[in-house]
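Consider the following input, taken from an annotated entry for Formylmethanofuran dehydrogenase subunit E domain-containing protein (Helicobacter turcicus).
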Amino acid sequence: METTLWEKVCLFHGHKCPGLAIGYKVALFAKEVLEINNTIEDEDIVCLSETDACSVDAIQIILKATLGTGSMHIDYLGKHAFNIYNRKNGKKARFVFCDSTKFSNKEEKLTYILSKEPKDLFLIKETIRDFPTKARLYDAIPCAICGEQTARNALVFVNNAHICKTCQNS
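Applying the prediction step yields:
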């Protein structure tokens, strides 16, 4: 028996919940609106999420916009809003969850979200930023105090030495 996409998303996330369903629905909607096909490569799709909630896990699985590749960015604004960019064709949109229906429990809300068409759950707006730059790679060098390898861009230069932010703040 083949695992469904929803089951794959739930397996990755660890449980089923309304937040995950929001991410699942927005990722499917983005694929349609932004003409995203299944030949996604690293950083083809970028997501600037305005939440750090469960929804980002579904986006990582479906759109392959992951934290590890630098194509998932979190700019916490407390909104279920997702700025999604398709580098392959230049399309971009901000998807804002707009359904305010009240429910007595999470299971009821989950069932409701999964039953709705994405176009009925999200507004499509202009992105809050233009296309993000591609992920940058930095050499790592040891901190002069603790010796731990640290990305060069995350070090501060103090008294002629490169110091990591952890040591700088202690």
